[in-house]
Specification:
It contains 6 helices and 12 strands. The protein is of the alpha+beta class and 239 residues long. A hairpin with a 3-residue loop joins β7 and β8. The chain is globular.
């Protein structure tokens, strides 16, 4: 049966009770839906089932979720989802002002503008593989995941999306071009994110990464992050 998608990259909002989520094609397979759950309006079992039916009606053949916390996972498991990937969750306390040390001038850490999003996605494709690549929908999701945000880049080398909600900060995305790793650009963008979050009243910052990403873990530990016992999970279901 043909799907109901009005465009190949269309994004659809699902609202069930108090829960909200967005459905759109994944970056790596347009036949698989990426389900992004609103952090302030998680889905219950009825909401998850409704999203599955919506994805079926739209012509998708499966769903992969955004990263979910332990409390968000349960209704998905009851709706026959399985764990696709587990992630580390780390946190850092912003109890004092971040370091005032500046990155070397050649980094040029500046704001990313909308017209530069194509360049950002090209860099993202160099930094990540497979389902970790954002794609346009994933980039849009990352930019609207929190009430406040900062999108900055060291031109052609790395970029970072930082979100803030109340006193909590989130490193939504840090992508470093494969040709520019171990040059200090990742650390410069983390510290730049800390400065933004501190100035906007955040007291704690979260970031997640793959279990086997030793480079990212080393970077985050060097910037003051500590590994939490509770992690995150990406779930999947097909039909």
């Amino acid at each position: 049966m043909p799907g109901l998608r009005s465009a190949p990259d269309a994004v659809h909002t699902c609202r069930v009770g108090h829960g909200r989520a967005r459905l759109g094609p994944s970056a790596t397979d347009p036949e698989i839906a990426r389900l992004v759950v609103s952090p302030d309006a998680p889905l219950d079992e009825t909401g998850v089932a409704a999203c599955v039916e919506r994805a079926r009606a739209l012509g998708f053949r499966g769903i992969v979720t955004s990263a979910l916390s332990d409390t968000e996972v349960a209704p998905f498991l009851r709706c026959n989802f399985a764990v696709h990937e587990r992630l580390h969750l780390l946190a850092a306390e912003l109890s004092t002002a971040p370091s005032t040390a500046r990155p070397r001038p050649s980094l040029h850490v500046t704001r990313v503008r909308r017209r530069e999003h194509t360049d950002v996605l090209r860099l993202d494709a160099s930094a990540f593989s497979g389902s970790w690549r954002l794609g346009r929908n994933g980039l849009a999701d990352a930019l609207r995941a929190t009430p406040g945000r900062q999108f900055r880049a060291a031109r052609g080398r790395a970029d970072a999306i930082t979100g803030i909600a109340g006193r909590l900060g989130y490193l939504q995305r840090i992508a470093v071009d494969a040709a520019h790793r171990r040059e200090g650009v990742g650390r410069a963008l983390v510290l730049d994110a800390f400065t933004y979050l501190w100035s906007h009243g955040a007291s704690r910052v979260y970031v997640n990464t793959q279990l086997d990403n030793a480079g990212a873990l080393a970077l985050y530990h060097s910037c003051g992050f500590e590994l939490l016992t509770s992690g995150l999970a990406v779930l999947e279901r097909s039909w």
